[in-house]
Amino acid sequence: RSMRPREGRCRIEVMKANIAYKFELMPTREQKRIFAQAAGCRRFVWNKAIELQKRCLEQEVPFLKYTELAGRLVLWKKEDDMLWLQEAPSQALQQCLMDASAAIQAFKAKKKGFPKFQARGDGDSFRIPQVRPTDWDEANGRVRIPKTGFVRFRKSRPIQGKIKQMTVSVECGHCLGRDGDGFRQRRSASSRRGRH
Fold it and tell me: What is the β-pairing status of strands 21-26 and 149-154?
């Protein structure tokens, strides 16, 4: 049976899309420090995971699954020289391992090359995959971020729908939102002048 529309009729496919919001954050000096630390912890965990997967590739053994990497993360947090990982949001580090696992799957499917190590300033960020409605205090222009508390933001547009996740990226003093919902913190004029 033909699936073509009948003559004189039109058809349209409607897809529900995620909307990304970017807002300027106005963190305190201490909150900026926490953001930078969380991004650094996420980058460290990413590199540790990729190092383990690279070793599997070289030894020609199966890649580690997300659950195995998550188990390693629990152990890393208990090691004396990595106790500082406990100061980062747990969700962000777990999401990092999920992203690393997805990158390995893409490599196995020959869709992308082997994941690369990340250096400082290489898109430093952390993503919170689960956001509760109570985390958003839209009336007072603030949002609660794990391990940081409420952070003020400049509401530049109305928020529609339910916020499900947020990403905070730290680059040269500013934060960028990606993958749906996020924030942006601009550099100061003095920072821009000092950069070559």
Answer: antiparallel
CA pair distance 68, 114, nearest whole angstrom: 19
The neighbour count for residue 39, using CB atoms within 10 Å, is: 23
181 SS3 class: strand
- 0.90 surpassed by pTM: no
Rounded Cα distance between 72 and 66, Å, is: 10
Segment 164-176, tens digit of pLDDT:
888 887 765 555 4
- Of 179, 153, 175, 155, the C-alpha closest to 166 is 179
| Dist CA 37 CA 24 (whole Å) | 19
Q: Is 7 helix (H, G, I), strand (E, B) or coil?
A: coil
What is the H or E stretch that residue 29 is in?
Answer: helix 29-59
Using alpha carbons, select from 134, 130, 127, 133 the residue that is nearest to residue 168: 127
SS (H, E, C) 122-180: CCCEEEECCCCHHHEEHHHCEEEECCCEEEEEECCCCCCCCCCCEEEEEECCEEECCCC
What the block records as the tokens of 68 is 């195995």
